[in-house]
């Protein structure tokens, strides 16, 4: 039996590791248990499709905390262990070895899992996914000079792995079933920049592609067949067709689940003393006036502070604007804000999209709702302030590089 004031964190990713840190930083001095089903202590995933995959970053650099940190801070790490159920009435979780652990407060930071490809042949060897550090290592060994790599999905995983594979000298085809990669998240104007980037680096980018089946010899993939009948030879197939939040525990425990675990702005779920953060949380965002589930690193980095404070009974609200970034070849990008299709009426550019050095602003009327900087640095905080200020501006000023962005902020 654990003492009555035990706080339990379920999940072993960035949100879980940061939550342990924030709970200690903000005064939880009782027992603290972090239970994760991976054997690795909490680590960040962005390098798995970038520096780690390219061999530029080592394994030590990806962890949220150094090895000794958990012991030094009195955090019990239970790795390689799954939580199989949550009982919100009895306030206890059950582990995969049958043990029950009572909690005073519980944080669900169970993240998400890759959607699987559901066509014949999808279970052949060398049909690869990318979520965990071992997956990245498998991709790395498949990305060799001249290897034929077919990537299914032109989202973030698809494009970042395509860039890594091309950098390693592989022949790369990207199959995207929409008209452009990243179309839904960036809209046409910015998505075209990424399509051009990959084509310029020799990727065979195929929009409107419908994969029909994966073919193999001796249990190992040797190609894919598309709906138009064409056959593409492949030494490996990388699948990046999106993720689904890991909500089973929450669902079975009777928590409100709708596109993730529903929380309020304090990251409290519908059941008392259970909180959620990171990829799995569909949290009410007071600034945007709606629930939002964000599948990005910065959200898993920052939400745990709010969750920890609210687990400790302190008042805290999560209202940071979404932020994400990518690195592909020599392109570095940062994005902040929220611009869903229909939530903006035009995109204004400052700089030259065809030179891949610019800032893009998503506009709703005279207000900026999201901004993206491509190979332009140290502007994203100003863009965030501009969005948060709600200041009105006009396209001529926004698109003029001679006008400092700071001058568009309201004077205080
Ligand atoms: C390859 C890759 C590259 C990325 N690059 C970027 C990037 O460049 N920029 C960006 O903004 N975002 C990026 N992301 C997204 C970002 O990594 C995620 O948003 C982030 O990992 C979410 O963290 P999390 O802790 O909420 O969930 P996760 O990282 O998914 O961690 C959840 C953990 O909980 C474990 N778990 C689940 N259920 C249980 C259970 N019942 N019991 C015990 N443990 C359980 C899971 O196995 C997992 O270890 C990338 C993601 C991937 C996969
Ligand atoms: N830089 C970053 O922010 C970054 C990098 C890597 C991963 N991630 C996160 O990891 C998660 C997974 O990334 P992802 O790229 O798998 O998901 P995604 O949702 O970003 O993209 C999936 C893409 O696959 C396409 N698609 C879906 N089914 C298809 C099919 N059958 N055939 C062809 N195309 C298909 C979709 O149209 C979409 O373009 C996301 O949450 C993402 O935000 C983020």
From TrEMBL:
Keyword Oxidoreductase: yes
Residues annotated as domain FAD/NAD(P)-binding: 7-303
Domain spans labelled Reductase C-terminal: 323-409
Record bears the keyword Oxidoreductase: yes
Cofactor(s) required, per the database record: FAD
Keywords: FAD, Flavoprotein, Oxidoreductase
InterPro entries recorded: FAD-oxidoreductase/Apoptosis, FAD/NAD-bd_sf, FAD/NAD-binding_dom, FAD/NAD-linked_Rdtase_dimer_sf, Reductase_C
PANTHER family, alphabetized: APOPTOSIS-INDUCING FACTOR 1, RIESKE DOMAIN-CONTAINING PROTEIN-RELATED
Protein name: Pyridine nucleotide-disulfide oxidoreductase
